[in-house]
Amino acid sequence: MKAHSEKYWTEIETWPRERIKELQNLRFLEKIKNPIPWYQNFWREHDVNLDDIQSIDDITKLPLTPKALVKETQQIDKPYGMWNYETNLSRTGTTSGSTGNPLLIPYTKEAYHNSLEGGARGLWASGIRGTDIVHGIQSFNTILGVYFLHDICEQWFGSMVVPAGSIHPLERLAMINFYNVNVVMGTPTTLIKLGEMAKTKSINLSVEKLVTTGEPGPICNPSCVDELKELWGAKTVGDLIGTQEAGGCFAFQCEYGSPHANEDMAHFEVIDGKLYMTPLLYLTAQLFRYEVGDHIVSIDDHDCECGRTLKILNGYEGHMKHGTPIKYSNF
Predict the structure, then answer these.
(1) What local confidence, expressed as pLDDT, does residue 155 receive?
(2) Number of helices (H) and strands (E), helices first, in the chain?
(3) Which residues of the chain, if any, have pLDDT below 70?
(4) How far apart are alpha carbons 189 and 211 in whole angstroms?
(5) What pLDDT sits at residue 269?
(6) For residue 164, is it left (φ>0), alpha (ψ between -120 and 50) or beta?
(7) Angle between helical axes of 188-200 and 169-178 (0-180°, round to 10)
(8) Distance (Å, whole) CA 35 – CA 41
(9) Looking at the domain assignment, is residue 125 inside a domain?
(10) Exposure winner among 34, 69, 263, 270, fewest CB in 10 A?
(11) Under DSSP, is residue 57 helix (H, G, I), strand (E, B) or coil?
(12) Residue 295 contacts residue 274 (beta carbons within 8 Å)
């Protein structure tokens, strides 16, 4: 894989709005021609006539897909529920389970490859390049975020990746310094706790770039940026937002702090303060008007100093429970 330019991973990030809408429409119409068996039955139950769907503007004629309903299909038809149709799988993963039982997600090779694209844009915007030495703090498990990081940085960017599983925090800090790691990615909570431990133990850190993901970070809480920079000696802190079942990273923070949505990869709707997504690239886990569960005010179309024309998330708060942002990390 090769970047479009030193600044943008793909030229789509700066396309005119009309051209982005045309690509959205093209991908949506192609996708709706081939619904999986579960959606064929689901739409039949809701009296959907696909002849009425002539463009992406007609998407509101489709019923919403509640997250609870997707989970219910996996209780009835194990292991993947509504996604049991595919047999040519290359790997599996799960969601974090932050809002209940985790969803099992099947991947073909093409689906996994498509799930990396959004993250590549975000990591490139965060300043990661082939000359960097990268480490992801989270453990290798069924939540594939750290796999996404490693595969993008190593295979697409050409960066050196330093892997580690569940090791003692002091071992991790020693490893980061030993290998001269200059990019570290993790949840804000874990990064702050690890940075505080380094400070307590008088371990000097000089990691140039931090990237947060997996829980509400700088996009939701800009005040955490200064704390992270001070603890790690970092110059920049980027933030990625994603949901594994709907295609990975769906929004990323540019160098001016704006959270841009990957509109060509997914169609976004805000309904009663909640985010709904229709992934437009091929995924084994096909979804239409899916309830992501994140709280948000709106997704707006306005100019950004970075030059990207992708819409910007406004008032994004992430997953919420009893009015408090959900945190996933277990230090």
Answers:
(1) 97
(2) 8, 16
(3) 98-99, 320-331
(4) 12
(5) 98
(6) beta
(7) 80
(8) 10
(9) yes
(10) 34
(11) helix
(12) yes
Residue 46 domain flag: yes
Q: How many separate domains does the chain show?
A: 1
Angle between helices 224-232 and 188-200 (to 10 degrees): 40
pLDDT in tens, 260-286: 999 999 999 999 999 999 999 999 999
3-state helix, strand, coil in the chain (%, to 5): 35, 20, 45
Q: Which residue has the tokens 């809002």?
A: 99
> Which ranges in the chain belong to alpha helices (H)?
17-32, 37-45, 67-76, 109-125, 145-151, 169-178, 188-200, 224-232
Q: Which two tokens stand for residue 130?
A: 């082939």
122 vs 185: CA distance, rounded Å: 12
CATH number, position 289: 3.40.50.12780
What is the residue-wise DSSP string for 254-282?
Answer: -TTS-EEE-TTTEEEEEETTEEEEEE-S-
Domain that holds residue 270: 11-93+102-320
| Lookup result for tokens 């990869």 | 265
Distance CA 88, CA 79 (A): 15
Which helix H or strand E contains 133, and what residues bound it?
strand 133-136
Give the Cα separation of 330 and 269 in Å (integer): 31
Among candidates 182, 104, 113, 102, which has minimal Cα distance to 147?
A: 113
Per-residue confidence (pLDDT) for residue 140, from 0 to 100: 85
**Can you give the pLDDT at residue 318?**
87
Is 3 within the bounds of a domain? Answer: no
Q: What is the pLDDT of residue 326?
A: 46
Distance of CA 44 to the CA centre of its chain: 31
Quick check: is 2 in a domain? Answer: no
Residues 124-160: tens digit of each pLDDT: 999 999 999 999 998 888 989 889 999 999 999 999 9
What the block records as the tokens of 316 is 């994004």
pLDDT at residue number 147 = 92
